Amino acid sequence: MTALRAFLAALLIAAPALPAAAGTAPEETARRAAAALEAAARRLEAADTARDRVAALTETIRAYEDGLSALREGIRQAAMREGEIHARFDARRAQVARLLGVLQSVQRAPAPLLMLHPSGALGTARSAMMVSEVTPSLQAEAESLRARLEEVHILQALQETAAEDLRAGLAGVQAARAVLSKAVADRTDLPRHFIADPERMRTLAESAQTLESFAASLPEPETAAGGAGLPPAPRFEAAKGSLPLPAPGTPVRGFGEADAAGIARPGMILNAPPRALVTAPCPGTIRYRGPLLDYGNVMILEPASGYLLVIAGLETVYGEVGDILPAGAPLGFLGGEEAAAEEFLLAAGASGGTTGQETLYIEIRHDQVPVDPAEWFALKRE
After folding, report:
1. What is d(CA 359, CA 255) in angstroms, rounded to the nearest whole number?
2. Long-range contacts (CB closer than 8 Å, 24 or more residues apart) made by 250-257
3. What's the rounded Cα separation, in Å, for the pair 139 and 208?
4. What is the separation, in whole angstroms, between the first and last Cα of the chain?
5. b vs e for 125-141, b when ≥16 Cβ sit within 10 Å of the residue's Cβ?
6. Is 186 exposed, middle or buried (0-12, 13-18, 19+ CB in 10 A)?
7. Residue 96: which H helix or E strand, with range?
8. Which residues are paired to 366 by β-bridges?
9. Which residues does residue 377 pair with via DSSP β-bridges, in sequence order?
10. How does 31-55 read in b/e, with b if 16+ C-beta sit within 10 Å?
11. Where in the chain are all domains bearing CATH 2.70.70.10?
12. Shortest CA distance to 280 belongs to which of 332, 321, 229?
């Protein structure tokens, strides 16, 4: 009995105990995400009868993107938590095995023998006192192990359920993107600021040496008959510091910061999910849309006289030069391939769910001079 007591003391005191359960953070995140995806599916059904289908579909895709992002995060949390528990079990495998052996030997021993001691009644009494001291700790350790095993089962069940929600969400957002593309193509209600000469714009883009030279060479638009003019600059300037980012993402390179190749650009770069919807952060007139230099597809908006907003790196672009877009209007989609549900689940289990990201370049120019775009957008400050 003395050896048993020494062993349990070493196990329960010297060895670090498994931490308490992390609560229901993964479950709660996944539950809320599933509810958001269900709401997005209902929005997609209702978009057909919406007065402004483009706006309704844009909101639907945003809801899908938010729900999918939250669901992926819930799956990551569950996979990481399960991995943490397994790692701790592996680290204490020998101790746990010895604990189970003690429990089994105690359970198998006949009750009368447990009450006897070779040294007689005094030894029996002392042994009883030792057992009474050890039993609560032994029970607590056993309960801790049981709770961790139950948590592993819950996390595994969560990941199986979330996988189905993930598949449904991916199918839903893909359908919404297709419907949005058709709705944008069919749209005829956008006001026009001016009518552009497509051939002239193409020539300017092909002959441009830099983004700066191209922006400077854009012809001054003449307001078309019945067209709307640009808003005054003070109205746009009043929004400084509060503009939403054009896509859900994280800034990874700021104004004038050099990249790995040593190239510094006067703009901001976001990391964003593949196939993310890009929207107009403010009202503006499309001054250019299409391929340009090595920027991929570029959208240049004029939100006010003297200002240009450059958004580059899109795979798909919407609208026509001269269109006046409201804030939140869809500009297009980023490229890349979304990981299928099975691929994401494998990545989550193996490495925390890291998936490929696309980059979006944002530049703001005032009187042809680049300004720091971070000062215009509502970024999370650390």
Report:
1. 15
2. 251/374, 251/379, 252/359, 254/372, 254/374, 255/370, 255/372, 255/373, 255/374
3. 76
4. 57
5. eebeeebeebeeebeeb
6. exposed
7. helix 93-108
8. 307, 369
9. 243
10. bebbebbeebbebbeebeeeeebbb
11. 198-375
12. 332
Average pLDDT estimate for 141-146: 67
- Strand intervals (E) in 147-267: 250-253
Q: By mean pLDDT, which of 150-154, 323-327, 363-367 is the weakest? A: 150-154
CA proximity to 70, closest of 174, 175, 166, 171 = 166
Structure tokens at 291: 């391929």
Distance of alpha carbon 344 from alpha carbon 341, whole angstroms = 5
Average pLDDT over residues 349-365: 77
Contacts 24+ apart (CB under 8 A), 291-299: 291/205, 292/205, 292/208, 292/211, 292/214, 293/208, 293/210, 293/211, 293/214, 295/211, 295/361, 296/335, 297/332, 298/211, 299/331, 299/332
CATH topology of domain 198-375: Glucose Permease (Domain IIA) (2.70.70)
Distance CA 291, CA 312 (A): 9
Res. 29: pLDDT tops 80: yes
The first and second tokens of residue 255, run together, are 């104004």
- Segment 159-202, tens digit of pLDDT: 778 788 889 999 999 999 999 999 999 888 888 777 777 888 88
Is 163 within 8 Å of 33 (Cβ atoms)? no
> What's the token pair of residue 34?
């599933």
pLDDT in tens, 198-239: 888 888 888 988 888 898 888 877 665 555 566 667 788 999
